[in-house]
Design brief:
Helix content: under 10%
Structural class: mainly beta
Distance between the termini: 47 Å
CATH topology of the largest domain: Mac-2 Binding Protein
Largest sheet: 6 strands, mixed
Shape: elongated
CATH class of the largest domain: Alpha Beta
Oligomer: single chain
Number of helices: 2
Pfam family, one: SRCR
Protein name: WC11 protein
Keywords: Disulfide bond, Glycoprotein, Repeat, Signal
Length: about 210
């Protein structure tokens, strides 16, 4: 078993693995984005955005199960990558590894007048989640338009009210700086209040030539 702890959601945090019925951590010797990629894929969390070391999500507890993990990036599980052996090396917890995954594997604008405008949705595993109006800002819209090759961000509109409660709602706020190439690279913050009155409609200037 594998999980990410102490992050903003299930797709970021300290890497923890369960072995012999006990949860433990992964030590950061040679921890790279390829290793993180395997973790994100295994957890159905999209792609890896950052591979972190030195306990960025706090120190864990229990054994350090894995050390010097070396993945190619296409393994189906983290423990299928080469490593020194289960619990072979005891490593202080301030070397615990962390991972930030994109959490979503795609984004799109739907229901707009053009391909470059509409309600913002992100793909979470196999389903599309709606993003709240209050969870994005203009800088974030700029990153989205750029990623979709839709020119510049023109406006963010308060979309339709959430009448349909069956819609899956994305729980994180995006805090882009504005120069990111992908929405997945923007800092995010888990939004605990479940209230989300309107969805976000993003309007971009149009396809870039």
């Amino acid at each position: 078993e594998l999980r990410l702890s102490n992050g903003t959601g299930p797709c970021s945090g300290r890497v923890e693995v369960k072995h012999e019925e006990q949860w433990g951590t992964v030590c950061d010797g040679d921890w790279t984005i390829k290793d993180a990629e395997v973790v994100c894929k295994q957890l159905q969390c999209g792609s890896a955005v950052q591979a972190l070391n030195r306990a960025p999500f706090g120190e864990g507890s229990g054994p350090t199960w894995l050390y010097r993990v070396d993945c190619h990036g296409d393994e189906s599980a983290l423990w299928n990558c080469s490593h020194t052996g289960w619990g072979a090396f005891t490593c202080p917890h301030y070397f615990d590894t962390g991972v930030i995954c994109s959490g979503f594997s795609g984004l799109r604008l739907t229901g707009g007048d053009t391909a470059c405008s509409g309600h913002l949705k992100v793909k979470q595993e196999e389903t599309w989640a709606t993003v709240c109006f209050s969870h994005i800002d203009f800088k974030t819209a700029s990153v989205i338009c750029n990623e979709l090759e839709c020119g510049q961000a023109v406006d963010i509109l308060r979309g339709t009210r959430f009448g349909d409660r069956h819609e899956l709602i994305w729980q994180e706020e995006f805090h882009c700086v504005g120069n990111e190439t992908h929405l997945a690279h923007c800092p995010r913050m888990l939004h605990h209040s479940k209230t989300c009155s309107h969805n976000a409609t993003v309007v971009c200037s149009g396809k870039t030539l």
